[in-house]
């Protein structure tokens, strides 16, 4: 990391100590749309990859915070099915950062009791990336302090198409019948099978859309947008989101 980026991260995006005043039930599952890396870099006349590198530091901070607070599940939107449309040098840079992150952080994740898994299709990734991801998943599979899902080459619509295709195949094979299809059964065919639906979805950078993220699972999630760009996201913002969540009354369509 260049000295100028280190200086900016230290001055602008290092998190302040959190105001630990959370009261009430914690969200069991937090999902985050990590947005704003490019705009963060552009505002500082830096290349976009510098923003992604800074975003990686924010990712580390949030993982630590979630383990300290006691959040059981965290899912982050790291690379969507649409992100392949970005300039090739940016895609290559993101692939390189993924390798760098796993190589540097895997031991720490394992020590902290973080279980890593992915959602999405890894088939489109370079072999080096796939092997490292599989290593991280295998190495941490018995950990249970924080269950971390990283969405890679993931899209909510693509996930639903794949789930419907597998259901149709199992109907043809006689494993299930059309009458067996329920909301619960569909959930079992999704990439997130076995996980609780997210209680709280955080989106940084001020955008007000889901961007094809966890479309089925987010039906009753509480949504919390913040104008803060992802590289500047720290403990204070996470605590604000959780505190706001705790003050909401979740009715699930009732009164």
What's the gist of this structure?
The protein has 255 residues and is an alpha/beta fold. It has 8 helices and 6 strands.
One letter per element, helices H and strands E, the order comes to: HEHHEHEHEHHEEH
- Annotated CATH architecture: 3-Layer(aba) Sandwich
| Class by alpha and beta content | alpha/beta
Give the helix level as a range of percent: 40-55%
What is the CATH class name?
A: Alpha Beta
Lateral arrangement of strands in the main beta sheet: 3-4-2-1-5-6
Structure description:
This protein has 255 residues and is of the alpha/beta class. The protein has a single domain (25-155, 197-246), classed as Undecaprenyl pyrophosphate synthetase (3-Layer(aba) Sandwich), CATH 3.40.1180.10. The chain is 44% helix and 14% strand. It contains 8 helices and 6 strands, in the order H-E-H-H-E-H-E-H-E-H-H-E-E-H. A 6-stranded parallel β-sheet has the order 3-4-2-1-5-6, with helices on both faces.
């Amino acid at each position: 990391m260049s000295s100028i980026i280190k200086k900016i991260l230290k001055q602008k995006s290092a998190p302040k100590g959190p105001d630990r005043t959370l009261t009430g039930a914690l969200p069991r599952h937090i999902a985050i749309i990590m947005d704003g890396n490019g705009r963060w870099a552009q505002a500082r006349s830096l290349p976009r990859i510098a923003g992604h590198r800074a975003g990686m530091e924010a990712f580390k901070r949030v993982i630590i915070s979630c383990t300290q607070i006691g959040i059981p599940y965290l899912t982050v939107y790291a690379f969507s099915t649409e992100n392949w449309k970005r300039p090739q040098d940016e895609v290559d840079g993101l692939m390189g950062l993924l390798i760098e992150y796993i190589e540097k952080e895997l031991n720490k994740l394992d020590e902290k009791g973080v279980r890593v898994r992915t959602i999405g299709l890894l088939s489109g990734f370079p072999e080096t990336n796939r092997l490292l991801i599989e290593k991280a998943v295998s190495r941490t599979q018995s950990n249970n302090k924080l269950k971390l899902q990283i969405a890679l080459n993931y899209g909510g619509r693509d996930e639903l198409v794949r789930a419907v295709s597998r259901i149709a195949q199992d109907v043809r094979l006689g494993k299930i019948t059309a009458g067996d299809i329920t909301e619960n059964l569909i959930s079992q065919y999704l990439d997130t099978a076995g996980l609780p639906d997210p209680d709280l979805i955080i989106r940084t950078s001020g955008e007000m859309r889901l961007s094809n993220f966890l479309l089925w699972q987010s039906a009753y999630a509480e949504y919390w947008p913040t104008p803060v760009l992802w590289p500047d996201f720290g403990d204070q913002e996470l605590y604000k989101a959780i505190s706001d969540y705790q003050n909401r009354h979740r009715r699930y369509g009732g009164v």
